[in-house]
What we know:
Elements: E1 10-11, E2 14-15, H1 42-46, E3 52-56, H2 62-70, E4 75-80, H3 83-95, E5 101-105, H4 108-115, E6 121-127, H5 145-154, E7 155-165, H6 168-177, E8 182-187, H7 200-207, E9 213-219, H8 225-234, H9 244-255
Parallel strand pairs: 3-4, 3-6, 4-5, 6-7
Antiparallel strand pairs: 1-2, 7-9, 8-9
Helix pairs in contact: 4-5
Amino acid sequence: xxxxxxxxxxxxxxxxxxxxxxxxxxxxxxxxxxxxxxxxxxxxxxxxxxxxxxxxxxxxxxxxxxxxxxxxxxxxxxxxxxxxxxxxxxxxxxxxxxxxxxxxxxxxxxxxxxxxxxxxxxxxxxxxxxxxxxxxxxxxxxxxxxxxxxxxxxxxxxxxxxxxxxxxxxxxxxxxxxxxxxxxxxxxxxxxxxxxxxxxxxxxxxxxxxxxxxxxxxxxxxxxxxxxxxxxxxxxxxxxxxxxxxxxxxxxxxxx
Length: 256
């Protein structure tokens, strides 16, 4: 029998999880019709009830695709505000025949506030959120007290929140507020499942010698709705100045 060559896709030389299947095995992973009211009907979408892991600002889907390939018993959901990167993500997920992964176009706040059922998410991931270098757009930054409150509400008791960035200014701001919502611990070095990087941005940052800041938080289950409301209104907003070198990295990412 002739040996068929596996169709492995690489990005910057790093393989993306799974392999491209023959077209008859492709699936459809895009959620195009979002509910006008209420959260996503997850059981209807996935056809089952399973642990749910989400990624806000998922980019081209590299992290979630690999996770969905390796963990068929878990469901995965990604959102990004840019339709073009969601097209890349869904195409890749479709070509791998994945049934436990879905993608949609949406901003982080709207995704967490309107589409995720409360107390349903096992893990919430957010990698390299857009730092918006223009000071006039500072309040558009996703990581802020309101967003962290929404993440907290979406998680199951003891749920986990993963965050990373290559902006030291963004990381300093995150350090100042995240401990109010989560028992937070910074991580030294790459995540063990992806020594070359979980995302396209992380791979590029590491290739160019940038430091990547990473951490994981465990949901503070004792917080009440009143506590969360107070934190949303009293903690500082992300009014920081980004580093010029991160702006250069952003341009390099668009060019590569």
